[in-house]
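Action item from last week, closing it out:
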Amino acid sequence: TSSHKMFLVVKNELNKSFRVDATKDITSNKGKFTTYSFALKNNTPLDAGVFTYPVKLSKIVIQLAYTDSNRVSGKIYTGTLYFDNLRLKYPMGPTSAVGDNEEALAQPKEYSLKQNYPNPFNPSTVIEFTTTDKDVNTTLKVYDLLGREVATLLNQRISAGVHKVVFNAEALTSGVYFYRLQSGNYVETKKMMLVR
């Protein structure tokens, strides 16, 4: 019986890759389905960077017969793998407060706009903010030193919760920029630095 290794490669919002190993190895089990789970907390960085949510599944990797001492060099191993009911569930917590998990979190008590990270950055950075009112039109815009609008990152009605937006400044030159959040009567502006 051969034992195989399965792991996922996921990418976070800064396009950094991370490997997430299955909690147990895959063994040959012809004609039967087996459940395998993955814990994102056990991720291994493939790229330098900080692991942040949300993540996207990039690929599923199967390392065939990695513990099989009877493997024959040059021999072709064949077989079929079927995937059914593939799901990704975020843990509850502030780092996962995006998408479908927003309403599941406790109602925030106050608005806030956090400092972008990384900062300085090149070319992408994450802007995180918290809103307290439901279904309020919210805008997040970026301005240069002269006050000219250079990007609109968000302009829509959103629910209360913690939100993250990725700003890609690939088309901009190095310098100081300002990002401004307006949600209902709340307005706040912060400074960030793009360094090429």
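Closing note: The chain has a mean pLDDT of 76.
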